[in-house]
Amino acid sequence: MKEASKKEMKNQYKNSRQIGGIYRIRCDGADESWVRASADLQGAKNRFAFQCATNLCPETAMSPAWKRYGAAGFTFEILEEIKKKETQTPREFSEDISALLELWNEKQGEGRESDGTE
């Protein structure tokens, strides 16, 4: 790859708007779901797809359902997206996402959904 092309790609990445938010991993067979937050929703979605493709359970809390229903029994759903503002620091963006996760957990009810952030 040419040096100019690498530099251009690096600049495009730096200038792209980061999209974070709230997502849910659902196991319909077990009637369970887990609400999570990420500062990089596309990365979270890609990671989930990789874990399904390689049959790696995303996290310990999901293990019993994963063993019973397998990767095919799970789905990934984006619940809400927020874009990082140009003036926001990474910490401020992370705090906004955490606050959004709290709101989602309140909406869903304490006992029904698990919560977590990446």
Detailed description of the structure:
There is one protein chain. Strand 1 and strand 2 form a beta hairpin. This protein has about 120 residues and is an alpha+beta fold. It has one domain: GIY-YIG endonuclease (3-Layer(aba) Sandwich), CATH 3.40.1440. About 45% of the residues lie in helices and about 20% in strands. A three-stranded antiparallel sheet has the order 2-1-3, with helices on both faces.
Q: What topology does this entry show?
A:
Layout: H1 3-15, E1 19-27, E2 32-38, H2 41-53, H3 63-69, E3 74-83, H4 90-108
Antiparallel strand pairs: 1-2, 1-3
Largest sheet: 3 strands, antiparallel
* Extended strand count: 3
What would you call the structural class?
Answer: alpha+beta
CATH class: Alpha Beta
**What CATH architecture do you see?**
3-Layer(aba) Sandwich
> What is the beta-strand fraction?
15-25%
Mean pLDDT equals: 87
CA-based gyration radius: 17 Å
- Overall form: flat
List the uncertain runs. 111-118
How many domains would you count in the coordinates? 1
Task: Tell me the number of helical segments per DSSP (H or I, 4 or more residues long).
Answer: 4
Order of helices and strands: HEEHHEH
CA(first)-CA(last) distance: 33 Å
Helix content: 40-55%
Strand order of the largest sheet: 2-1-3
Instruction: Predict the CATH topology.
Output: GIY-YIG endonuclease
CATH superfamily: GIY-YIG endonuclease
